[in-house]
Amino acid sequence: MRTRGLTKRFGHQTAVDGIDLTVPTGAVFGFLGPNGSGKTTTIRMLLGLVTPTAGSVELLGEPMPLRAGRALPRVGALVEGPAFHPYLSGRDNLVRLDAADRTTERGTAARRIDGALDRVGLLPAAGKRYRAYSLGMRQRLAIAAALLTPKDLMVLDEPTNGLDPQGTREVRTLIGSLAEDGTTVLVSSHLLAEVEQVCTHLGVMHVGRLVAQGTAAELRGDREVEASIETDRPETAAAVLRELGLADVRVVRRRAVGRLAGVAPERVVSACVQGGLAVTGFAVDAPTLEDVFVSLTGEGFDVSG
Ligand SMILES: Nc1ncnc2c1ncn2[C@@H]1O[C@H](COP(=O)(O)OP(=O)(O)OP(=O)(O)O)[C@@H](O)[C@H]1O
């Protein structure tokens, strides 16, 4: 899935500003950004629910909206969430939704529905009324509804919004199992911590712009990783670090600290030992993604929820 220069203006306001989004096949792509940064508008354009002001979308290799008929049936989405009937069971809700889909075969409905319920782990609770479901179960039922027919791409807009930690874990586990089955997943969130663990790739929106995208490792960037050596002669250690090619080398109390800048961490220790230093401590610290995003956007994510 990819976009080129995708733009949406509402009057004078540019909600999405020329973004080039690339979601590799098989990825779990975390689409991150604070509320109002343009994630939902982007997702609505991807799904053909909103017409872009400019730019293009390619969905499952098909140009949109030209080949929408080919791509969209293979794309499942959780954007607004389907309307479920509170007094019907989870299964009966899916029976209703499935019956409304004229493209599917009647004879295989029961198998399709139980398959979808099983996929989201709701088979044991399939006979319970929807109103008795927890928020996490409701969200999983919505995903089951999207899975009634096989999907190559699932687009989930803030699927953990309003969920308690248990519900969040349920949805995260489900995203992981979708990915294991080979489904590409695009999941948006304003909470980095909720999706970070399950994502192979991340994209960060900030005021309508995509300020970064790539794997977590790419976003962190090797050069940001710092090594620190603790010794009784930190000034000597600092000289060794500089000699090795570390950047921004400085002494902090009993430690010499510097950015690795591509130098292998194990070389730092061996060089210090060979230099006759008594190394009493060694640490390599990558900045958290939170740090990276704060530096990209000048704003923190709402990590607490
Ligand atoms: N139909 C619309 N008409 C006018 N402005 C809109 C419309 N839809 C969205 N916007 C504006 O576009 C900007 C981006 O909104 P969008 O919903 O895409 O952000 P978001 O990152 O998904 O945030 P949230 O998580 O709150 O949905 C916001 O400033 C919003 O007010």
Q: Tell me, what is the CATH class of the largest domain?
A: Alpha Beta
Low-pLDDT stretches are none
Under CATH, the topology of the largest domain can be stated as: Rossmann fold
Number of domains: 2
Structural class: alpha/beta
What kind of sheet is the major sheet? 6 strands, mixed
Strand order of the largest sheet: 6-7-8-3-9-10
Which strand-content bin applies to the residues?
Answer: 25-35%
How far is the first residue's CA from the last residue's CA? 29 Å
Element order: H for helix, E for strand: EEEHEEHEHHHEHEHEEHEHEEHEH
At CATH level 2, the architecture of the largest domain is: 3-Layer(aba) Sandwich
Under CATH, the homologous superfamily of the largest domain reads P-loop containing nucleotide triphosphate hydrolases
Total helices: the number is 11
Radius of gyration: 24 Å
How many extended strands? 14
Which range best describes the helical content: under 10%, 10-25%, 25-40%, 40-55%, 55-70% or over 70%?
25-40%
* Nearest-integer average pLDDT: 90
Quaternary structure annotation: single chain
Summarize the structure.
This protein has about 300 residues and is of the alpha/beta class.
Task: Write up what this structure looks like.
- The protein is of the alpha/beta class and 305 residues long.
- The protein folds into two domains: 2-220, Rossmann fold; 226-285, 2-Layer Sandwich (Alpha-Beta Plaits).
- Helix content is 33%, strand content 27%.
- It is built from eleven helices and 14 strands.
- It has helices at residues 39-46, 68-71, 90-100, 109-119, 135-146, 165-180, 192-195, 216-220, 234-244, 265-274, 289-297; strands at residues 2-10, 13-19, 28-32, 54-59, 62-64, 75-78, 153-157, 184-189, 201-206, 209-215, 226-231, 247-252, 255-259, 279-285.
- Strand 4 and strand 5 (62-64) form a beta hairpin.
- Helix 3 packs across helix 4 and helix 5 packs parallel to helix 6.
- The longest helix has 16 residues, at 165-180.
- It is elongated and about 80 Å long.
- The mean pLDDT is 90.
- Residues 10, 13, 15, 33, 35-41, 158, 190 line the site of adenosine-5'-triphosphate.
- GO terms for molecular function: ATP binding; ATP hydrolysis activity.
